[in-house]
Amino acid sequence: MTEKTDKTMISRRMVLEVAGGGVIAALLAGSFAGPARADAALLAEAIKRAVGDSAMNEGRITLDLPEIAENGNTVPISVAIDSPMTDADHVKAVHVFAEKNPAADVASIYFTPSSGAAKASFRMRLGGTQNVVAVAEMSDGSLYTTKKLVKVTIGGCGG
């Protein structure tokens, strides 16, 4: 009785293809290692992208956020800008930024004189204790800003 064996030849090319695929997979996995955190430079860059380099004034913006947020996944925020909302004097937009989130841009809300009031409320995610910055663009080109520190705790036990 003779046994028939099937010997598959593995070529050098096949070995290189498999090894190359493994290297590429390892490189891709490393590029998704985890979320990067924004810093002061990235925050400034995000603000510059949104409103340019113009000088910013303090005031006119009321930013309502909790001082301590027990859950950073759903932090309530209300923003209101003092403006008569007329054709000659109105808020064009308000931009909200989170200093240490993976992406500093949180929201941009646009208004017209027909909006009646420059107010908005929403919930946002904060990836830890950080400053939340709001920048309002006015119809005359002026910019107003304010910021507020929000301490994000884990179940209210520090953070």
Describe the structure.
The chain is α+β, with helices and mostly antiparallel strands. The protein has a domain at 55-152: SoxY domain (Immunoglobulin-like, Sandwich), CATH 2.60.40.2470. The chain has 2 helices and 9 strands, in the order ααβββββββββ. Strands 1, 3, 5, 6, 8 and 9 form a 6-stranded mixed sheet that branches. A 3-stranded antiparallel sheet has the order 2-4-7, with no helix packed on it. β5 (91-98) and β6 form a beta hairpin.
Considering the chains and any ligands shown, give keywords for the structure.
three-stranded antiparallel β-sheet; Immunoglobulin-like; 159 residues; six-stranded mixed β-sheet; alpha+beta
* Helix fraction by DSSP (H/I, runs of at least 4): 10-25%
The general outline is elongated
CATH architectural type of the domain at 55-152: Sandwich
What is the arithmetic mean of pLDDT?
Answer: 85
- Which radius of gyration do the C-alpha atoms yield? 26 Å
- Count all strands and give the number: 9
How would you sum up the major sheet? 6 strands, mixed
At the third CATH level, what is the topology name of the domain at 55-152?
A: Immunoglobulin-like
User: What is the CATH level 1 assignment of the domain at 55-152?
Assistant: Mainly Beta
Number of helices, counting only DSSP H or I runs of 4 residues or more: 2
Structure classification: alpha+beta
Q: Span between N and C termini?
A: 76 Å
> What is the ordering of alpha helices and beta strands?
HHEEEEEEEEE
CATH homologous group name of the domain at 55-152: SoxY domain
Strand fraction band?
35-45%
Stretches with pLDDT under 50, minimum 5 residues: 30-34
